[in-house]
Amino acid sequence: MMELLSPWAIALVVFVVGSLGVVWVVGASVVKRHSPEHLPHFYMIIAVVRILILLTMIGGYIFLLSDSKEESKVFALFTMAMYVLMMVITLKIKH
């Protein structure tokens, strides 16, 4: 299943999802330290930004780079799995 994805596609997903996790953890710490009453707003804004970035990345890959329906499915599933893993890790770090 993973042979359908190039190493560059895998590296891109890992980098983007990892970056989103770091932004969430560091941003939440900064907001909590400086303005804890704005923490719910930060969570909502960062959630929308994360989803928009991931959907844009998946859509761009599917429409511009994918060669088959199967490759598109694998990329979307891999991206979502990495996102879930990132959320589990960041929640463990923060709570």
Can you describe what's shown?
The protein has 95 residues and is an all-alpha fold. The protein is built from 3 helices and no strands. It has helices spanning 7-34, 39-65, 69-94. Helix 1 runs antiparallel to helix 2, helix 1 (7-34) packs parallel to helix 3 (69-94) and helix 2 (39-65) packs antiparallel against helix 3. The protein is elongated, with a radius of gyration of 15 Å. The N and C termini lie far apart (34 Å). The model has no long low-confidence stretch (mean pLDDT 91).
Strand content: under 5%
Order of helices and strands: HHH
Average pLDDT, all residues: 91
C-alpha termini separation:
34 Å
Beta strands, count? 0
- Based on CA atoms alone, the radius of gyration comes out at 15 Å
Give the helix proportion (percent range): over 70%
Show unreliable segments: none
Main beta-sheet strand count, sense and barrel state: none
Shape: elongated
Q: How many helices in DSSP terms? A: 3
Which class do the helix and strand fractions yield? mainly alpha
Quick gist of this model?
With 95 residues, this protein is mostly helical. The chain has helices at 7-34, 39-65, 69-94.
